[in-house]
Specification:
382 residues; alpha+beta; Trna Endonuclease, Chain: A, domain 1; 3 domains; 5-stranded antiparallel beta sheet; 5-stranded mixed beta sheet; globular
Length: 382
C-alpha cells in the first residue's frame, strides 16, 4: 500500500498531518458553532445535553484528532478553550494564510468571547451567516419603517447607539418615534457581558468591554491588550472604559448589528464627510449594509462600500460573491487595517482576476484622491 493510499484510507498524510482542506473545513465549522453558541447559550453554561450543532462540532473534532494522532477534547468547555488557544495555522487545522491571517483564533484570549474574525468566518460561504442575519434584520426594519427617511433615521440611531441607557430617553435629541421602531432590535445586557454586576463600554467604539480577569478592578486608561477586551478589538487604550453601574436600566443592540452596522459606522461617516467636503453627491444603495452610489458620474456607475473586517481574503470573497453592476467600486476600510502588513496584498490576491481592476481598496482619507484617479483612468480609456 502506498503512502497516498494509506492517507486516503486513514485520513492522514505520510507525515501524520491531516489531509489538506479537512482541517480548514473543521475550523470553519467551529467558527459557525462558536458564533451560534454565543447567541443561544450565552457562553456561561455548557450543560448536557449539548445543542445539536455543538455536539456535531465536538464529534467531528474528536474524529479529526483521532485521525491525525492528536488527543481530542473531552467536552464542550474544553473545545471552547481550544478555540481560544489554537489558531487557524495550528497544525491541527493548517488553514492557509491566503484564507485567514495566521494567529487567528475563534474565541478571544482575553475576553473569552467570539472574536471578530470568528463572526467574519461564520459569515463566509452559503447563507451568509451572521452578516446575512444583520442584513435580514435591517430589511425587516426598512419594511416596517415605510419611508426611506424613517429607515435612515432608525439605521443611524442604531449605528450611533449600540447601547442605550434609560437616562438617554430624557436627553436632548431623543426621538420616541425612532425608539418605537428600533427597540425590538435591542435587548437586556446579558450576564456574560457583565463584570461584578457592572457593564463596561469601550469609549472608542461604544461596544461592550470586559477585563481579562473578571475579579480584578476595572482597568484604567493605561490598560494593555492583556488587561481589557472590547468587541472592536483594535481600539486604542488611552481612555478608561465607561461604566454602567445599573445595567438593568440599559439595552444593547443585537450582536449581528453591533458587528456589521455599528462597528463600521465611524468609517462610513468619515467616508461620507470626505465626499461632502469635496462636493461629491451620493445616495444610499439597498443590499450591502453600508453602501452608496455616486450621483454625478455621468454614464459611469461608481459605488462606495464601507467595511470594517479583519480578514482581507474573506472580505474579497464576500465582494466577489455580491459584485454589483457598477463600473468601479471603491471599498473603504479603516486606515489601521490597510496599514497592516499584507492586508492589501491578501485582499487583491483573493479577488478573481476580472475584479482586480473594478474593486479599489481605499480609506476615508484616500477616498477622494482614489476616486479622482479612477475617474482619470476612465477618461483615458474613453
Amino acid at each position: 500500500m502506498t503512502a497516498g493510499t494509506a492517507a486516503r484510507r486513514t485520513g492522514r498524510t505520510a507525515t501524520g498531518e491531516a489531509p489538506q482542506g479537512l482541517g480548514t473545513e473543521l475550523f470553519l465549522e467551529l467558527a459557525r458553532t462558536v458564533a451560534s453558541l454565543a447567541e443561544v447559550q450565552g457562553l456561561r453554561s455548557f450543560a448536557l445535553p449539548y445543542p445539536g450543532l455543538a455536539q456535531r462540532a465536538l464529534d467531528r473534532t474528536v474524529l479529526h484528532c483521532l485521525e491525525v494522532g492528536e488527543t481530542p477534547p473531552q467536552s464542550l468547555p474544553e473545545l471552547w478553550e481550544w478555540c481560544r488557544t489554537r489558531p487557524a495555522d495550528d497544525p491541527l487545522f493548517a488553514v492557509p494564510a491566503a484564507l485567514l491571517t495566521p494567529g487567528t483564533t475563534l474565541v478571544h484570549p482575553v475576553g473569552r468571547m467570539p472574536t471578530r474574525s470568528c463572526l467574519e468566518i461564520a459569515s463566509h460561504g452559503p447563507g451568509g451567516g451572521v452578516a446575512a442575519h444583520a442584513r435580514a434584520l435591517l430589511d425587516d426594519l426598512e419594511a416596517r419603517c415605510g419611508t426611506g427617511d424613517r429607515f435612515r433615521q432608525s439605521r443611524r440611531f442604531m449605528a450611533r447607539h449600540p447601547v442605550v441607557h434609560q437616562q438617554d430617553r430624557f436627553g436632548p435629541g431623543w426621538s420616541k418615534a425612532v425608539w418605537s421602531r428600533v427597540k425590538d432590535l435591542y435587548g437586556p445586557i446579558p450576564e456574560s457581558l457583565l463584570t461584578d454586576g457592572v457593564f463596561l463600554r469601550c469609549p472608542t467604539c461604544g461596544l461592550p468591554a470586559l477585563p481579562g480577569e473578571r475579579d480584578r478592578p476595572v482597568p484604567g486608561p493605561q490598560a494593555t491588550d492583556d488587561d481589557l477586551w472590547c468587541e472592536g478589538e483594535v481600539c486604542p487604550r488611552d481612555e478608561a472604559p465607561e461604566l454602567i453601574r445599573d445595567p438593568e436600566q440599559a439595552w444593547i443592540l443585537r450582536s449581528p448589528l453591533r458587528m456589521f452596522l455599528a462597528l463600521p459606522h465611524r468609517t462610513e461617516e468619515a467616508a461620507r464627510e470626505a465626499l461632502d467636503r469635496a462636493g461629491i453627491g451620493h445616495a444610499a444603495l439597498p443590499g450591502p449594509l453600508c453602501a452608496f452610489r455616486l450621483t454625478d458620474t455621468g454614464p459611469d456607475l461608481l459605488d462606495i462600500q464601507v467595511h470594517d473586517r479583519l480578514q482581507p481574503a474573506l472580505l474579497a470573497a464576500r465582494l466577489a460573491d455580491s459584485a454589483a453592476p457598477a463600473d468601479r467600486t471603491l471599498v473603504v476600510v479603516p486606515e489601521a487595517l490597510v496599514g497592516r502588513d499584507g492586508y492589501r496584498e491578501t485582499f487583491i490576491n483573493a479577488l478573481p482576476a476580472f475584479l482586480r481592476d473594478r474593486l479599489v481598496l481605499t480609506t476615508p482619507a484616500d477616498l477622494v484622491p482614489d476616486l479622482g484617479r479612477v475617474r482619470g483612468e476612465k477618461e483615458n480609456d474613453a
